[in-house]
User: Fold these one by one.
Assistant:
Number 1:
Amino acid sequence: MEPYSKVVAGLRDAVTAAMTKAIAAGELPDAPLPGFIIEIPADTKNGDFATNAAMAGAKSFRMPPFKIAQAIVKNLDLTGTLCERFETAGPGFINFFLGSDFYAEVVKDILNDPEGYGSSDFGKGEKVNVEFVSANPTGPMHMGNARGGALGDCLAAVLQKAGYDASREFYVNDAGNQIEKFACSLEARYLQIYKGDEIVFPEDGYQGADITELAREFADLNGDSYVSRDSAERKKALVDYALPKNIKKMQEDMATYKITYDKWFFESELHKSGAVKAAVDLLTEKGLTYEQDGALWYKNKEVVTQKLLREGKSQKYIDNLELKDDVLIRQNGNPTYFAADIAYHKNKFDRGFTTLIDIWGADHHGHVMRMKGAMDAIGCDGDRLNVVLMQLVKLVRGGELVKMSKRTGKAIQLRDLLEEVPVDSARFLFNTREANTQMDFDLDLAVTQDNQNPVYYVQYAHARICSIFKALAKDGIMPRACADEELKLLCAPEEKELIGHLALYTAEIINAAKDYDPTKITRYVTQLATLFHKFYNACRVKGENESLMQARLALCDCTRAVIKNVLTMFNISCPDSM
């Protein structure tokens, strides 16, 4: 049990026992014990923990809260709670103050298992699929993919730390409409090499320079041998050449970004296996499709409306959504992206994942409800599909918006970013703002090597601690195990504040996992670095009496361990010197 949970559990038992004793002594009426909370107050100057038990018991005991509080504290025994004293305040709050045993125990817990500290079994080994980036393989990856990659990878890491069996997945859209458009674009550029302007480029084709480059490479290899061939054969050859190259580039970019996926899932496999047809047939069997204008439609409006009504939403609310039905099979007999998406998410459930987490761009917000509804419709629990919507990223340099790469003069791609900005900076900075907020990514800040750069600031704190140990080692001073009484010497305000923050780490991991928000951890570790610098400036390590010096070295070691723990979890380097 993490330190603060241990205290909460102990105080709950102590308050419950005190009320039971007070009832037995006739100091409180014989009535059912009230439900109450133990919490960390907003202002800890008045106590490290507080309970509302007296206010909560006013109705049950039919007494003023202040008198109930007096009866509780009269019978309160703090033995085993790690708190050393209590006091009443206001209308009946009872405040508790942590004792030296608590701070000593936190230090011991960390040093007993530095790498494992922060881990818990909160997730009970639940199988969670985290799908992120999933960029279209028809072109280079962009800034949204950069943000999604950092968020998704670090979220999976947090979930693993919190006891979930989390799997990272990249969904490759290598089939369907966008691949046909890719083929037509490549074909036009290839033919233009030999036939010039008489070949009209498709209106909705991909205009990027990468398409022209791929067509030129294909021509260099094959010459004009495909000019006279059938269009279908020509397009297939072009896609067979270009698509693997694009996918390989995506995999290389993700590796450069320090992201390793457990699975690269290819949409084409869904079509080959018949999974898309099976999903459509299942919806048809359930009476949730109909034919119109030569296409097969899914009754999205009906399904989502029923789902929202079950959730208590009003008809007016539903009407304002302007729900529409969706095409599953086009007039030409080809399935839509939506049909494949239904089959893909069903496949994830079929593979044994009980929770699905998708990280999508905010422009996909309209797709969330229909996917959840579709999961319900095929017999999966749509509420187990969780979508993290991610807002846009703007690149800024010198306070000005940046749209073009200095190197290429074209729109900045993920690869351009990683050539300009250290990977550690990118991974950390993209995790400093919640996914649902727009973000200005400061290119100047990302390459700055001073305390203005958050990742540098945290890494420097780790390096600074390492330098303390190196300097002491030169003087022949080595850290050693401390006795409990020595650790209880850590009682300065800065020491207690630092240890208190260290004690919160496991709870922060759990909260980040529950909220699907790894930015909680970057904020946590940044604050940890701040509290360490505050401690170090206020409390001398060398030169104090030997016992206090060793206790402070133990605290330095704890801080170093937790900083390394966070950075390692997020696949960010943790230098010993800077």
Number 2:
Amino acid sequence: MGTKKTNKKTDKYAERLQKHHDELRWLYMELYGNDSMFAELCDNMYRFYQERKDELKNLDMQREEHPDWYKQNDMMGMMFYIDNFAGNMKGVEKKLDYIQECNVNYIHLMPFLDTVPGRSDGGYAVSDFRKVQDNLGTMEDLENLTASCHKKHINVCMDFVMNHTSEDHEWAKRARQGDGEYMSRYFFFHDYSVPAMYERTVPQVFPTTAPGNFTWLEDAGHFVMTTFYPYQWDLNYKNPRVFNEMMYNFLFLANKGIDIIRIDAVPYIWKELHTQCRNLRQVHTIVRMMRIISEIVCPGILLLGEVVMEPEKVVPYFGTVEKPECHMLYNVTTMATTWHTVATRNVRLLKKQLDIVNGLPKDYVFLNYLRCHDDIGWGLDYPELLKEGIGERSHKEYLNNYFQGYVGESNSRGELYNADPVTGDARFCATTASMCGIEKAGFEQDAQAMQKAIQLDVMLHAYMFMQSGIPVLYGGDEIGQVNDYSYKEDPNKAADSRYLHRGAMNWKLAENIADQTTVEGQMFARLGRLEQIRKQERVFVSNADTWTIETWDLSVLCIGRYFEGEKIIGLFNFSEYDKTAWINETDGDYIDLISGRTMQASGVDIPAYGFYYLKKING
């Protein structure tokens, strides 16, 4: 019996390999022209397949039979740092019931692979791709956690940082000692002549905290390419050994039960002189090969690309229908435009942004969020804003001042990140609750202001759930957790204001989720109600028709969704004043899914920061 089972699965592997082999070989040879390295890659792919547990192989086959499994209306994400959320991996395992109570079935574990404190960039400087940070647990703990998650139908996402390694990685240590084999895995230069040529065309990522793209290593007598921070050395993917070894790391982690691999900094993977070293065609070749490799060895895996650009510009990273690349991408620009809308009470730019996203093919799945572990950069459509006389520099200054609480009758609290006094550019850090005014209202003990802040917070989540794609919460947002200023007391964190919104989960406050008299209880109950509606109503599947509707009020956004005969209209007031949405949907009665009230979808009065989910009643 066991032999037949094994043969069936081996046949499945052979079937997948036969389907994809020729394209994989063609792409590999186009990039590297190395038969022996390709043969080695294929041998190792089969080895990782053999090592893959039966439970994961069975899950792979289920997902192959239902390829749209992740596009359903029950998909709901949450991201968190393991130590901040629950101490370690065993702690997270103990909190899975709470995660389920949050209606979450997809958790993104922020970077947990081995790194060096003080030189970690929040975990994105990996020193060992096959070791968990000691304080978080072990690889065995990771396997136990993913197995427990799968029993509860929770998917697990992790970061795969393939653009660079830590300078403390074994490869980097050997390269630093002058070992040519390992130097060739990075970009080493004995003098500044070639780096100077790169610097003419390559933009800086962190011009204030980490200027330039190269670091001089005094002990090694060489420059090394470091696009992000001096302790993060860029990998040289022109070397097939780098690609092969990183794919082995990728498959090793997939075999630990990871469902979603988030590819960090995707556009930067390939470097070429006389270019910006961004979004080069070879990047797409590499991502396509990753997709093929996963479809042969572990087809239940999803690839999530971190591409920080406007939706229409990230589209190439989805690939094509015939040759797909990433399964999912982040909706970064819409997130930033959402906060612009909060600060201006003007939905015009957001409406245009949503129209662009809604016009893309339904196969494209975006992750939507109000905030993440990172700062908020104001990458808005400034040519569009300029038509209204709004300049880029002055508007960025207004937004940063607004969310610090200085202008525009703002109730927000937060801090700047990477402020550049020369360009006037800066990014912003804060939790959703603090940006909505919950921190300020709590500090001032203003009950009326608190209700207004909670209403804004809930409305923004209701709007996010209405967008096309998968919504993702940041852990703590479900209870309205505010900024944590204690990071300033930690010398390893004090210089990085992003730790302001990466505070530890306050489990004492989380005990209040059943108490409607508390902020936590109100937030948890109201978000829970929205999440239940989303799971119950099929129009929230990610491939539903989605569009915006003119409201004739600059403060009110209207989004329509339609799927298989069902229709829902969402109305969202981004103003602190009562408004009327002059929509005119005269196709019959609607029911407000929040209150249960039957009403017409025309001339709708919406209270300050209010919203409606209006479902068409089919007669």
Number 3:
Amino acid sequence: MRIKYVGILIAASLQCLAPAALAASDNSKAVAAKPPALVADQIPAIPTSVVLKTQPYMEFRTAAFVDWDPKTKAMLVRTRFADTSQLHRIARPRSEREQLTFGNEPARAASYAPDGSTLLFQKDIGGNEVNQIFSLEDGVPKMLTDGKSRHRLGPWSSKGNLLAFGSNKRTGLYNDIYLMDPANPDGATMLVASSGGGWFPIDFSPDDKYLLVFNYVSITDNQLYLIDIANGSSQKLTNSSNPVAYNGLKFAPDGRLWAASDDGSDVQRLGTVNLETATFEPMIDEKSWDISDFDISKDGRWIAYEVNQAGSSVLKIYDVKTGDIRTVSDLGPGVISGIKFAPWGELGFTFNTNQGGSDSYSISPETLSITRWTKSETGGLDAANNVAPELVEITSFDGEKMSGFLYRPDPKKHKGKRPLIINIHGGPEGQAKPRFLGRNNYLINELGVAIFYPNVRGSTGFGKRFVALDNGPFRREDSVLDIGAFLSHLRKDKRINKRRIAITGGSYGGYMTLASMLRYGDQLKAGLEVVGISNFVTFLENTQPYRRDLRRVEYGDERIPEHRTKLEEISPLRRASEIDIPLMVVTGANDPRVPASEADQIIAAVRANDRPAWHLLAKNEGHGFRKKANADYQFWASLLFWQKYLLNGD
């Protein structure tokens, strides 16, 4: 890959590092200073030479579309100029980004009031997910919530005088649903008191008489309710005996409720929910693929929807008046997210691809013409030179079809058989998609390491049957066997060095990393797990209470004796003494999902067997590192790990 302005970049890097980042005056022995919140245990100091070599790959920027400003027709995006992602406004395509929020913590979800009079956003502290809702008044954030309970930003009413949001302030556990006038936050009133599950407000009816809410029981069971705002009465729109899932729900201006649902199908189709009969009536069926997101134009004329084709996005425009469907064909392969119509008709979205980065775009529903609003920097590197992934399809041990994305180094630059890292997504209700790889492009482009992202059973995007194949403790290890099937296929690849294969993953992917190290350790060189589960029983007992019931549906209920026995049996901690290849663990001290204790116990057990177990802990992070300084150091530490245990030695 060609690096532009190398001299300037290196000079800038040295300037940033000096003097705080240099722990020695002799540059040949200089090391990068560790961010104050990080604890590096058994991890060597990071040589400055590593920092300088990788620096261009650390300096990429992204711009995620968030919302439209109804007053000025500007686009609201989330991007990072310093250490954390913040909200920025862009007046017109490719103009400069005006930063709106500033702080040590990332600004998360955000939305404008329908008339543009108010901008609300949410953020937490140190990744603890105890989000607070803020308004931005004359450039100054004003907290509208209590500062101690967990909150989640919901929809605006059609008139724009009310906001619906979720909060656990009544019980400290589950989300209740509240209505608030942001101009009078102390007057917020509770509309729905929940007794469990994952309750959340979805959309107001056009006349503001009703609020659609749902209870997220599991990924395949979303229960819908229509709440009368005047008296609080509710009408259930789903049948609990026939669980269905929804991936988008929205009222059209004519009052019809549109949904993407798998009701009556293995995949999610687009249709309407009859409010009188509470039945789903499909109108658009993409056959083998999920319709994973959609939005309706303010005049009701257009519906834009995303089709998930094995992880790649296809954007289509449905003409409600004529029934015509047109495909947006000029984007190329990549991943679309966050689609939303502006009041004047333009459709905004984020488009993510490894050969173009992650940026904000819009499209005209009439002409399908595409406008790129941002072109984010990639550290002086040309993202077009990054490799495009190839779709790998296999048959697993039981005949189940599955796939993943393989990023191969350029064979002209990196000849011969290449090392491979298998990178497993979390969830398990997640999906590997052909995204921009950011820092990991250094491994591919400069070190010649191939990276494979599998979608094992339990992944989303392949229908509700597939996503449920790993449910419960007795089928959990089937997904580990899927990794074995991928390993068998990749080891036969003539361009892969079967003696240099390693594995990594985050969250549930962290469990899969540990489990794969145990089952396939003789085929792997090392494993690196991030915020992963080491023991299902202690995980379920110690995860935040508001998440526990949801996780029991997926993994099993540790209170049931036969479940508990099986969960203990399949937990990597139970067999930690058998881990015979090097391990690295990355932990967020404030993680509410997978407690830091899960990392502590697996590290102690592996070290007790006198095996390497590097540990990187961030005191100011939660479920993954969100601050740039921490994420950079994590990459450098992992790079040393891969160089020592994957790329060097026998």
